[in-house]
Amino acid sequence: MDERALDDLTELLPPLLTALERLNLLARHFDPPRYAQLMEAIGEPDAAVRAQLPRLEAWPESLADIRQAVRTAADAVIAAFEGLRSAADAEDGLMAVFRALRHPPEALEALYPLAAMLPPVSQLFLEPDKRQDTDLLKRLADPAPDAEVGVFHVGNAPDERGGFSLYVPEDYRPDRAWPLVFALHGGSGHGRGFLWSWLRTARSHGAILVAPTAIGRTWALAGDDVDSPNLARMVEFVASRWNIDPDRRLFCGMSDGGTFAYVSGLETGSPFTHLAPTAAAFHPMLAQFAEPGRLAGLPIHIVHGARDWMFEVGMAREAARFLESTGANLTYVELDDLAHSYPGELNPRVLAWLKETPRN
Question: SUPFAM superfamilies, alphabetically (predicted)?
């Protein structure tokens, strides 16, 4: 990369990465009654991104791939902020916010290939407490020869259903068994976007991550369960190519994805050893259909927000009491400031719980 392009990136990357972090902050704290206050708090970091974008036009054709990645990320960030600002006056304001928040994963997907060559981008895909970990940074920069690592999409283009996206850490080595995390998107979501809610943690703390996409518009919460067999096939595929710890297979999800973690994960034949539903709906009938042998000692980690406006927190408290009474090994976390959104800051804690909590 020539000196001028490096200078341009020095000016463009900081506002771009800052804008992405602000979008992440908004997604985490999104709560309809507080929307105007939250928008005021995150400000207009996209203005600095717009101001620096013209620098890319003078880059030589030899840097076209890098230019395109940065441009795609910047355009996605700008589109997200435009959508968020217009949502306040939209008839379908809530859905407009959700549509706008589909853009940040597009930016992350575009930037991820640059992590191998640009330290600031690499740090974006690490937990804050790992960004100065020189040993980890060295391992991530030195993949094993012929190792299949990085981000893959298997039948999971944005317009496809029933496939999955996969992340294998760059420091993967086949001489040890790795935890497996299956992260399920919410209703009308897509695994390709939800992958990024967990990638930072998987990369920082060592886990193989799978983000599947439901076959239908959402997970099979009623009628024929077409999703559970599909997920089982994914587990088999991943375990056939990478060294997966058979005792550390996490089944987690947000909203409908969390509810399906109950529906499917409580089945006797489930390939998962630990369940971690977030912001999910629950009814005791789900557990009443489960075999007692499945529930006894089953590690379940529930996360719910006290301000959840879709699935009231009382439902999660009832789930915790009931599951504990059945003999499940229960952990319950309730966040006072969480509405109906995904608290990614808890991912390291959930992954540590997966590693430390045995299946009885």
Answer: alpha/beta-Hydrolases (SSF53474)
